[in-house]
Amino acid sequence: MAGLAGRLARRWCSGLLRSPLQVPALGLHMGGPAMRTSQKDFNNAVNQVKLLKEDPGNEVKLKLYALYKQATEGPCNVPKPGVLDFINKTKWDAWNALGSLSKEAARQNYVDLVSRLSASSESPSPEAPAADRKQPESDTLVVTSEDGITTIRLNRPTKKNALTNQMYHDIMAALQAASKDESVITVLTGSGDYYCSGNDLTNFASVPPGGLEEMARRGAVLLRDFVNCFIDFPKPLVAVVNGPAVGISVTVLGLFDVVYATDRATFHTPFSHLGQSPEGCSSYTFPKIMGSSKAAEMLIFGKKLTAQEACAQGLVTEVFPDGTFQKEVWARLKAYSKLPPNTMRISKQIIRNRERETLHTVNAEECRVLRERWQSDECMNAIASFLSRKAKL
Ligand SMILES: CCCC/C=C/CC(=O)SCCNC(=O)CCNC(=O)[C@H](O)C(C)(C)COP(=O)(O)OP(=O)(O)OC[C@H]1O[C@@H](n2cnc3c(N)ncnc32)[C@H](O)[C@@H]1OP(=O)(O)O
Question: What is the interface pTM, i.e. ipTM, of the complex?
């Protein structure tokens, strides 16, 4: 029965990309995805599906179908097909699983999904020569590969490894390369006494010709793409937190598989102090990891956690004495890197895949909210205070 259902579903899915759901061609939206999806963006995405070079597989096609129905008709409003009507039941289940998701959110998710599919079908294949892959363009990020471990090291110690716009791009490129290289485990760490002091606040200092609104729009697109790389990273991802961590470097930890910290590390998300709101999917991962009230204390009130506290809350896997931190952690990672790579990838997939779409939705929503926050007086005043040296955390 399952085999028959699978075959029928496969046959149905193979026709889906050419189904009458699609609208006539419109111009292709290939720039950074807009944060508020217009009908035109949605129509473009529907059209873009037909141009995909690779078959995205049945699971994805079903997702596209469900999001399309939700975006155009709203929550599933038709009776459940009978158990023997395999094809329609599969479609119905996928649509119904979206519950009360709004039409706008479904449209946004559809556009996001298509944009990711388009990007991955255009990204260089693993066999592409290394020169074709984007390498870090400055020495603020150092990427090395040894003993089956690719290490991405933030290397701006005099600025506490604050993340410049270029560094976001370099980290994304490094993650993309690491996802395809020979290594088994990928590590993110920092140079010097800090792990990372979060977003470089001077990123906000140069306002582009389009003004604050354009700056916020660009920031939101960059942030969304950056966080998506962590959500989609296919291999075991480990944070080696060598010192204090602030802002975005803390929030994305919820997307890592393992987090090792020195006992000198602290974990600080001072969003309210900065007139900003949570990102890195922390509005979803933190309550899940530590419970809603502990998450609220961090994300709303900006409570700074010690490494031991972060470990007790489940954000950190294990804390090591600073004196032996590097030695112990790297010895551990080298041993783990000898484990069978495919098995580890598959285990990660089974742990993470169920939540991937949810995380993309959360990420898009957080970026939409932040885009507005970045244009608020509260945020502008906080950043002006830091830049004029009046404020420090
Ligand atoms: C597009 C994507 C956007 C994603 C958004 C993410 C949100 C966040 O990440 S919010 C968090 C933002 N980070 C901060 O607010 C931290 C600000 N920095 C500080 O409060 C302090 O510098 C510190 C507590 C991290 C360290 O204090 P300490 O006294 O030990 O050292 P300093 O003398 O202050 O720092 C040395 C040097 O580094 C500069 N610096 C440190 N952090 C940042 C930063 N985040 N942005 C820009 N510059 C930073 C600091 O100004 C000093 O520079 P000078 O030597 O030139 O004075």
Answer: 0.99
Ligand 1 atom 16 nearest Cα = 197
Ligand 1 centroid, distance to 162 Cα (angstroms):
6
- Which tens digits make up the pLDDT trace of 291-331? 999 999 999 999 999 999 999 999 999 999 999 999 999 99
User: Looking at per-residue confidence, does 12 or 67 come out higher?
Assistant: 67
CA 259 to centroid of ligand 1, rounded, Å: 22
pTM of whole model > 0.80? no
The CB of 190 under 6 Å from ligand 1? The reply is no
1 versus 172: the higher-pLDDT residue is: 172
Q: Is the pLDDT of residue 129 over 50?
A: no
How confident is the model over 164-190, as a mean pLDDT?
97
pLDDT in tens, 213-246: 999 999 999 999 999 999 999 999 999 999 999 9
- Average pLDDT rounded to a whole number, residues 69-87: 85
Q: Please give the number of the atom of ligand 1 that sits closest to the Cα of 391.
A: 20
Check pocket membership of 162 for ligand 1, CB cut-off 6 A: yes
Residue 381 C-alpha from the chain's centroid: 28
